[in-house]
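In this section we turn from sequence analysis to structure. A common task in structural bioinformatics is to predict how a protein folds when a small molecule is present, because the ligand can shape the pocket around it. The inputs are simple: the amino acid sequence and a SMILES string for the ligand, here 2-acetamido-2-deoxy-beta-D-glucopyranose. Study the lines below before reading on.
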Amino acid sequence: MSLTRCFLILCQFLLYTTVSSKKVCGRPPITEGIDESILKRVYEVGEEVTLTCEQGYLPSTSSPRRISCTGTGDWTPSDLACSPNMCPIPKPLQPLAMGRTEAPFKSILNFTCDDGYVMLGFNSSSCLHNGTWSNPPPMCKAVNCPLPRPPVDGRVVHDKKPFTGTNTIYGQGWAYECNPPKAPSYERGSCMADGTVSEPPTCRDVSCPVPTGIPNGVITFAVMREHRYKDTIKCL
Ligand SMILES: *[C@@H]1O[C@H](CO)[C@@H](O)[C@H](O)[C@H]1NC(C)=O
Ligand SMILES: *[C@@H]1O[C@H](CO)[C@@H](O)[C@H](O)[C@H]1NC(C)=O
Ligand SMILES: *[C@@H]1O[C@H](CO)[C@@H](O)[C@H](O)[C@H]1NC(C)=O
């Protein structure tokens, strides 16, 4: 065990001394988009490498760049720069992309739908090497809710008229009405973002007391009585 470790350390030491005793070049310096897959870690003096752009990038110069390992252990300079292929951003999405009209290779667009909408399609798309997107943008479709149940002794009056269909969609609303003289415990309902609708209200008798203390006025009813739901009084 300890013998093996000593041996390994010795080997590393030997390797290190051999390498450092003779000039070599390390992996050439590269910038984004240059194909690294063909590069070795160590090169002999005089060895040459042709740098190329990897898939999805285009060279800034037409000829591939040959560089060589010099006697000082440095590489001759290269002026190869690789620029990424661009994917056009779909027009409707450009305002969301802060006005940009294209995005570089490997960009990812993430999509979300607003509350109350469900996504049909893929939630992301990436810019491929050939300048196309991996997925089309998704559609956002309004959530469906069931039809609201009417209150006992009452009905639902949809805002949308004429109302047809077996469900409602996010954003649609309705009023609850009760058979007079009853009043609903609440008057409005709508299809909510989570796809649910409210329970129907209860219809009950309500009465309001005779109004008092009207500033600068008097009440002129022939009969002073309690008022029922939706009764109005008028100030003259
Ligand atoms: C897109 O989503 C991926 C994974 O869900 C995440 O890693 C990435 O940061 C997101 N990009 C943006 C621009 O939000
Ligand atoms: C995107 O969809 C994938 C499955 O298609 C899912 O695993 C992932 O969580 C989703 N990401 C977001 C941000 O909704
Ligand atoms: C782009 O590349 C993708 C994936 O490799 C392929 O499916 C698609 O057909 C290519 N599109 C064009 C226009 O070449």
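The radius of gyration is 38 Å. As an exercise, try to locate the residues that line the 2-acetamido-2-deoxy-beta-D-glucopyranose site and compare them with your own expectations.
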